[in-house]
Amino acid sequence: MLVYRPPRVSSTVTIASPVVYFLGGYGQQPDDFARAEQLFDLLILSKQIQNMYFVFLPGDGRTTGPHFT
Length: 69
What we know:
The chain is of the alpha+beta class. Helices cover about 15% and strands about 20% of the residues. The chain has one domain. It starts with a strand and ends in a 12-residue tail after the last strand. The protein has a three-stranded mixed beta sheet, with no helix packed on it.
């Protein structure tokens, strides 16, 4: 699983942040989401979306193994 952490997260902040989960397609690799970090940074910093976490889950149904840690 890959987790995107928003740019303005402080370890002292106790406010809950929303989480968006993406279920990838069969056969997708973590590198397929490399540009997502840049896109989310841009959207959050330009205030087009709020600060939130994004979690990318494998879409091949695995619960263990090299693609799901």
